[in-house]
Sequence to fold (304 residues):
Amino acid sequence: MGRPPCCDKFGVKKGPWTPEEDIILVSYIQEHGPGNWKAIPTNSGLSRCSKSCRLRWTNYLRPGIKRGSFTDQEENLIIHLQALLGNRWAAIASYLPERTDNDIKNYWNTHMKKKLRRMENEDGILPASGFSNYKPMVKGQWERRLQTDINMAKQALHEALYMEKPSFLYESKPSCSSHSCSTPPSSTTYASSTENISRLLENWIRKTPKNSAKSAQHHVNELVNVGADSTSSDGTITSAANNHMVSPETSLFQVDSKPSLEERFPLSLIETWLFDENCYGGGNGSNINVPDLSLDDASHELFI
DNA sequence: AAAGGTTACAACCGCCTAAGG
DNA sequence: CCCTTAGGCGGTTGTAACCTT
Fold:
């Protein structure tokens, strides 16, 4: 059976988004808020399908998205989470509020897999997780480590479910450096998105003929101006967005941007496990109290 | 400098799920 | 309940940018 693709309709544009489309989408969402994606193409005048709009927003235009290379800490976190959760990129991404699932997935499929292959060639053994700390393990160690993983996840889950007061929220932790783990969710301003778009527009200008580049530059100026000063507006579509960009209504985007890890999950043990790359394997794993728990029991209790 | 190969990532596709009628 | 469908997710593809020869 299956549904017909939503983008099969005649006249629906595909392919890379232009800066103009981005601006239209951002302006619309600024005004009406995200959600009701179905209505966006019709109401905003975009010749895109709803799905395309949603993806563009969540993966690229949404405020608070961090781009660029991943830090070692992020990499380790991803490795640990991938070992625990598998290819559930959305779940993994929820632990990295500034990264999108698409980003993480891409990063995994390019960088990490390459790394994995290289290690396979060097050592001839598959690492379980924590590439950077990887050392070949004998079978027993493997199993033991998996048991540890399961048990820690189980404890974390238990804490998450039964902890009464989330006092751990924003509790500072030495092993968590600059990452979001110790800070409240930053109040996302529209500037992040402005940066996204202006960067994109700048890139576009570089490779676009003069005329279109000029108009794009106009948009860039508008966006940048607004990021700094809300008074500049000339009535164009961007200015509609601009009025919101610096206003208190930006809370709209704060709401929409991914909640921080702390907001969504009470963390303590799992946090330790995820961020502490020395908790086993690579560092000195001997200080971990590996529970004497059979794999079957543990996994059964955890996943049922 | 040009051609061919590789990498990175934005975007699309199709399946799944949950909500609403 | 059943059906429909919007939204979400993971896998995959297309292509621009970069690198190597």
User: Anything to note?
Assistant: DSSP finds 14 helices and no strands in chain A. The mean pLDDT of chain A is 58.
